[in-house]
Amino acid sequence: MSTIIPEIKKRSDYQQPDFLINHVDLEFTLAETSTKVICVSQVTRNGLHNRPLILDGEGIELLSVHINGIEVSNYQQTENSLTIDTDSNEFELRIVNIINPKDNSSLEGLYLSAGAYCTQCEAEGFRKITYFLDRPDVLAKYDVTIIADKKNFPFLLSNGNKVDSGELPDSMHWVKWSDPFNKPCYLFALVAGDFDLLEDQFVTQSGRTIALELFVDKGMLSRGQHALDSLKKAMRWDETEFGLEYDLDIYMIVAVDFFNMGAMENKGLNVFNSKFVLADAQTATDEDYFNIEAVIAHEYFHNWTGNRVTCRDWFQLSLKEGLTVFRDQQFSADMSSPIVNRIQNVRIIRERQFAEDASTMSHPIRPDEVIEMNNFYTVTVYDKGAEVIRMLFTLLGKTGFLAGIKLYFKRFDGQAVTCDDFVQAMQDANDKDLSQFRRWYSQSGTPKVVVTDSYDPSAKTYQITFEQQHSATFDQNEKQDLVIPIQFSLLNDKLELIKLGDAKQQQKMLELHDSKQSLEFKNIDSKPIPSLLHGFSAPVKLDYPYSQQQLGNVMLGSPDEFARWDAGQKLFSDCIHDLAGKTQQQQKDSINQTVAMFEPIIEATDISLALKAEILTLPSFETLFQQMDTVDIDGLNQSRKLLFKALAQKFQNNWLTQYSKFEKQPYAYQANQVEQRKMRNLALKYLTLSGQHDVEQLLIEQFNGADNMTDSLAVLGAAQLGDLDLFEKLMLLFEQKWHNDPLVLDKWFALHANTERPDILARISMLMGHSQFTINNPNRVRALIGTFSFFNVSGFHNIDGSGYKFVADYLIKLNEVNPQIAARIITPLIQWQKVDKVRQQLMQHQLMRIGDTKGLSNDLFEKISKSLP
Ligand code: TRP
Ligand code: ZN
């Protein structure tokens, strides 16, 4: 490994800033390779001390420093700081510097995205723009002037309100913006370019009119409507559900093609990955429509949970992200199907968050140590963080939760605060002791809840015992008991609900806080079947010795839809895991027996079509992987396929019926259509696997007749799954049609990358030469390289090590271009903990190779150094 060891920052080392900045005047003169930045800050010393002012800065060419109008030269510069010693306690600091947006391929700070200037400052990108106190607890008001060529950059945007503008010689122009709200520099944004503009309005509950402006690439106007509609829904929802109203007079969203993540909540000026803005029926799938609505809402909700109240330091990231993800999940549930949403949330936890916690990157939702902050925008901080908020919601009830939120804003509006501050507000508003609950913030790892029970027929009593178990994680040896809300109910053998307690409650919530707790129920006529962890009431692994019959009963009879789905998933996964080491005949019998359990689901009339489709979908390879301690990669892959095929064949008639029963309507993103397409395209997959004789005909008909991307893509997915020759033919046609549309082509790149074929690496190498592919665009890299490493099980984990080497080679290149993306894509390579010894060594060998790279980024250094023994 490289020998320069970067600094590890610790949460416990937090100290208040030595200086505060309360006003910033920024002026940008935009030019591709030398943009001039003038930053005038009003600085005050914070407390009594004589330490110098130390500003953050990276890759900046400093021209001059003035204090109170007088040039100073006795400053010291290092690679990432500027130290200025002064006796003044209050002064104006003027810094003039040059930056180079054109050569900025990291997509942090100011960069060019397909000819437009844009910024990305979270977490620590502002320091690439100018020398500053780049930390979230320094809050200031910003006035921003942008100067640029008028022809190429007719739109000059920044946060807040446009207050002035004018013309300059040489066809230049300028615009001045003023943001009346205090903000940390990570919420600063600047955009300059030529766009199509979609305009609308929103009238708030108090009657204020907000201008809504959506900026998209030229020619993309018709693809912006869904995003704008989503924004209005989110604004209304936050008013009615949380009582929160928008605060500025204008809300702008800009879609850009080069972007490291999904979107960014800059005050009044969100910047989005165009993938999460642009949609029409021809180019976007139902899933895209869903994601756009969710991400638009997420960024909008940040205006209160993130911007009005922000984080004191980056260790507190979950303060805004966990809470905002929880809010966007609630919103999405209200906009569409709550159960399908919940299933989707749980899949992310089980496939990705459990994997993270089982890996060398394990960390609590509030991390204790960080080298590169960008590495901690994780499924743990975001999605497990949202689960922790959800548990508070469950424990306090909606009314109690909202009372806590209200107190939180009353106490902390305009401030930069901690996760503890948030929990304290919840505690005080509800008069409930949350001290043990707080351990969810400091403890990493996936808890296991082991449930046992016994029934005494003579006394007619039923006892059920819950025990929480915690094992050491890579980052933490000592674990403590947590507060785990477990919602459950009991069924009798006629699948009727047993009333629990005197409140005639049918669902009960146990607050498991001891390591072991038992409940006893009286007057129970026969041994009940427990339906456990309703709604996934806690992010844990649950262990109860269910028989197959009992699972079947929960799947058919639980009052909780999530528990029904989960029981079905467990039937499938038990079957898959049990196939290992069996004879062919035994495998056949066992598969048949499991498949038969689903017959009643096919017939069921008491569940929605959407839920039915979810129940009939096998658990993903990634979910199955996380259920095991050590994984036989090839065996697991094969077993899953066996069951897949059996389901296809056994219910062939049903798939045919499901496929043909819905009347075709012109495409609309609308709940009943979405669920019909979901079921129909699931049926198409199964039909393809079943060997149905005329399936190629079906596929071609659907491909040619589709009026929307969901149905076109489903054909490609099915043909790929069925390993049909048709797949290659259709992929060619698809490419001919869409080669000028990068967002659509990403779907095509991803399909290629996920194909099982012996020459997959040659195929991917060839695609890297495609005219639309560029290492500089994260969407392309994620689609091709990311999909291969995350999802192409047979290719990535090829026992000859070629998949690992291929990814490593690519990451060594990507390290130079965009370390943030490289560090995301390395994830599957550092998750070697559960695979066989041969593969572990191959993976570690590649990690070492990357580790030896000259100029290794902090991003990769942190992940690799943790992951090597
Ligand atoms: N705060 C953003 C969100 O959750 C995510 C974000 C963090 C981000 N760092 C980023 C987005 C860098 C783009 C680039 O919505
Ligand atoms: Zn966010």
From TrEMBL:
Record EC number: 3.4.11.2
Domain Peptidase M1 membrane alanine aminopeptidase: 227-440
Limits of the Aminopeptidase N-like N-terminal domain: 51-187
InterPro entries: Aminopeptidase_N-like_N, Aminopeptidase_N-like_N_sf, PepN_Ig-like_sf, Peptidase_M1, Peptidase_M1_dom, Peptidase_M1_pepN, Peptidase_M1_pepN_C, Peptidase_M1_pepN_C_sf
Pfam hit, one: Peptidase_M1_N
Catalytic activity from the UniProt record: Release of an N-terminal amino acid, Xaa-|-Yaa- from a peptide, amide or arylamide. Xaa is preferably Ala, but may be most amino acids including Pro (slow action). When a terminal hydrophobic residue is followed by a prolyl residue, the two may be released as an intact Xaa-Pro dipeptide
Entry GO MF terms: alanyl aminopeptidase activity; metallopeptidase activity; zinc ion binding
GO biological process annotation, one example: proteolysis
Cofactor: Zn(2+)
Keywords, in A-Z order: Aminopeptidase, Hydrolase, Metal-binding, Metalloprotease, Protease, Zinc
Domain called Peptidase M1 alanyl aminopeptidase C-terminal: residue spans: 549-868
Ranges of residues in domain Peptidase M1 alanyl aminopeptidase Ig-like fold: 445-544
Reported function: Aminopeptidase N is involved in the degradation of intracellular peptides generated by protein breakdown during normal growth as well as in response to nutrient starvation.
Stated family: Belongs to the peptidase M1 family.
Descriptive protein name: Aminopeptidase N
Organism name: Paraglaciecola arctica BSs20135
Gene this protein is translated from: pepN
